[in-house]
Amino acid sequence: MISILYDDWYVCNVLFHINGGPTTSLASNPDCQSGKSGISETSLKIDASHPLVGFHARQGYNDQLQQLGVIWLDARNPDCKKRLSLKEQKEMYKGGVPTAMESWLRLSDAQKRQGKELEGLLTFHSIIKS
Questions:
Q1: Can you tell me the mean pLDDT for 73-99?
Q2: Domain boundaries in the chain?
Q3: Helix, strand, or coil here: 36?
Q4: Is residue 118 within 8 Å of 125, Cβ to Cβ?
Q5: Mean pLDDT score, 126-130
Q6: Helix/strand/coil percentages in the chain, nearest 5
Q7: What is the sign, positive or negative, of the torsion defined by CA atoms of 96, 99, 49, 27?
Q8: Percentage of residues in the chain with pLDDT exceeding 70?
Q9: In whole angstroms, what is the distance from residue 28 CA to residue 63 CA?
């Protein structure tokens, strides 16, 4: 499980809770602690069907993270299990890394719908926690 800690302005820490063992923290900010006044926490469960493979973020004023999103691997999708050859990787990025809009346009309707549903669930979850 991971926990994203944030206040009204920015993400201040990410905690990794691994198999009941010690929690690993990405930041050592004493003002950003779980349960502290003014700090909100959103926790996401990670399982084998959708393991966490990375993060994407938006940087705000003074190098602070204003938004943080997770990148999941859909382990049930056969396309996600296929390892691309070096040639396929070069072909994929020959025009440079795609913009957000280019990436969105490449998604299937089902992938777009799934993304919107996940975004809705995360928004609902954050409203409930507020």
A1: 79
A2: 1-76, 83-130
A3: coil
A4: no
A5: 68
A6: 30, 30, 40
A7: positive
A8: 97
A9: 16
Q: Which two tokens stand for residue 40?
A: 């909100």
Backbone dihedral region for residue 16 (phi beyond 0: left; psi -120 to 50: alpha; all else: beta): beta
Phi-psi region of 104 (alpha: psi -120 to 50; beta: other; left: phi over 0): alpha
Asked whether residue 63 carries a pLDDT value surpassing 70, the answer given is yes
Select from 6, 12, 65, 67 the least CA-distant residue to 41: 6
Q: How far apart, in Å, do the first and last CA atoms of the chain sit?
A: 20
Judge whether residue 123 has pLDDT over 80: no
Question: Quick one: tokens of 126?
Answer: 């954050």
Amino acid at 98: P
Quick one: tokens of 71? 């990148």
Could you say which DSSP state residue 93 is in? Answer: T
Which of the four pLDDT bands, split at 50, 70 and 90, describes residue 39? Answer: very high
pTM listed for this prediction: 0.57
